[in-house]
């Protein structure tokens, strides 16, 4: 097991032929760590299930649009050259995403089912976006109280091909605080 900035990455992750990485509800303060994780793990595909700059809370604070735009520019630099599926969340602005991230992401609507390496993935921001879907992997975020797999708030998921093993890596402890989950810091 490798230790990287207090994030434990099991050796099996590095031995996998291909890796799909899933995150959700990422505060801007997590971007540096996210960049380090991407450079360490080298996922073939990234799935982000919304709220790209979760600490800005654009839905509730629309006057922070410029900060959100600046965050997306930072995010773009991190993901450049990678395959990224993105489901916009309630704290995201689709028009700003299209303007800044453009062709750097594959923008999908909540509830979309995609196929990756012969397996089906239901992608959503909220749990209800994927709950009733016929898919082998149901990836979402948004709700820290939702416990069915695979909630991208609770853990970073790395899905290994061809084994289809899912490795869960805990976010650094400060991420929940920066998301605004002061009550749920122990997630």
UniProtKB/TrEMBL annotation:
Tell me, what is one Gene Ontology molecular-function annotation carried by this entry? hydrolase activity
Q: Which domain of life is it from?
A: Archaea
* A Pfam family recorded for this sequence: Metallophos
Q: Outline the extent of the Calcineurin-like phosphoesterase domain.
A: 19-102
Query: Could you identify this protein by its name?
Result: Calcineurin-like phosphoesterase domain-containing protein
Q: Native species of this protein? A: Pyrococcus horikoshii (strain ATCC 700860 / DSM 12428 / JCM 9974 / NBRC 100139 / OT-3)
